[in-house]
Amino acid sequence: MSTCILSIILVCFALSSCGCSAAVELSSEWRDRDVVVDGSDSDWQGATTYLKGSNLALGVRNDSTYLYMCVILNDRQTQMQVLASGLTVWFDARGGQNKAFGFRFPLGMQGNQPPAGIERRDDPEEARQLIQQSQSELEVIGPGKDDRERMPSMVAQGITAKLGNRQGVLVYELRVPLRKSASNPYAIDMGEGQFLGICLETSGFNPEMMKDRPGGMGGGGSGRGGPPQAGGGMPPGGGGSPRGGPPGMQGGGRQPEPLKLWTRVQLALSIASGAK
Fold first, then answer.
1. What is the DSSP string of 33-100?
2. Is 80 exceeded by the pLDDT of residue 190?
C-alpha cells in the first residue's frame, strides 16, 4: 500500500512539473503581405505578441513554403546576451520541446570583446557596428546529434536572418523553409496548419568581460523599458536600473539568467486549405 501511495505521489509531482514548464501557445498568421527580412519590425505592426515575464515580443507568420519570425527585445540584459553569446532558435516539428534542429544566429563575439560604447543607448553608431559584425555567419544545428554546419549568412540556402536596432530596441527577423527541397536543404520539415515547438535560447552573458571597460555597463537610457507593445512599440515610463544601466550589471550585482523560452505555435492554413 505504501509503495502504491508513493507511486501516485511521484506521478502527481511529475505532472505538476510538466505543467510548470508548459510552453506559451500562439497562433501564426497567414502571410498575406510581403515580409522583407531586413532587421526592421515595419512589416510586423500589430502582429507581435508580448510574452509575459520574458521582456520580449514575438510574431510568427507562415505561407506554404516558409516560416517567418520577428522577435523584439527591449531588455538590455537580453540584448547583450544575444550580441555577446549568440541566440539559438530551436524547432520541434511535432509541437513539443525537443531541441533536435535549429539555427544559431547571431553567433556572438566568439572570444572577441564588443567595441566600447555598445552598452550605451546614446551611442547608436557603436551599436550599429556590433550588430553588423555579429551577423556575418549562422550555424545550422541538427537534425543529427553531431550535425553542425557554419556558413556565411548571405549564402545560407533558403534561410534568411537579420538583426536591426530601432532606438535601443533589438529586432531579430528570421525566415526558414518549412519543407526540404533541392534549393532549400535546411528546413523544419512540416506543413501548414500543424503545431510547431519554437525555443529561443541564449547561453548567458558574463559581465566580467565588461568590468575593465571604461564606463562599465552604464550610459544613457533605462535597463528595462517595459513590455514591448504589439508591433514593436514600447510603452512610456518603463522602469529601469536606478543607476541607468541594466539591473544586475552594476556594482557586482547578480549575473542575469540566460534566456530559454519555449512557445507552441499553430501554423496558419491558407485560405484555400481552410475552405476545404
1. S----SS--GGGTT--EEETTTTEEEEEEE-SSEEEEEEEE--HHHHHHHHHH--EEEEETTSS---S
2. yes
Cell numbers that stand for 144 in this block: 543529427
Measured distance CA(149)–CA(84) in Å, rounded: 20
What is the spatial distance between Cα 87 and Cα 170, in angstroms, rounded to a whole number? 12
With cell 510552453, the residue in question is 23
Q: How much is the mean pLDDT over the chain?
A: 75
The answer to whether 68 and 37 have CB atoms below 8 angstroms apart is: yes
Secondary element (H or E) of residue 126: helix 124-133
pTM value? 0.74
Does 5 or 108 have the greater pLDDT score?
A: 108
Query: How far apart are alpha carbons 260 and 275 in whole angstroms?
Result: 37
Shortest CA distance to 229 belongs to which of 21, 37, 74, 69?
Answer: 74
3-state secondary structure of 31: coil
What's the farthest any 2 CA atoms get from each other in the chain? 69
Average pLDDT on 219-230 reads 44
Give the up-direction half-sphere exposure of residue 116: CA atoms within 13 A in the CB hemisphere. Answer: 6
What is the spatial distance between Cα 55 and Cα 232, in angstroms, rounded to a whole number?
Answer: 12
Strands 66-73 and 101-104, how do they pair?
Answer: unpaired
Q: Are 211 and 106 in contact (CB under 8 A)?
A: no
Residue 100 pLDDT grade (very low, low, confident, very high; cuts 50, 70, 90): confident
Q: Is 200 exposed, middle or buried (CB count within 10 Å of its CB: 0-12, 13-18, 19+)?
A: buried
Q: Kindly provide the b/e burial profile for residues 27-55, where b requires at least 16 CB atoms within 10 angstroms of the residue's own CB.
A: ebbbbeeebebebbbebbeebbbbbeebb
- For residue 152, give the amino acid letter: P
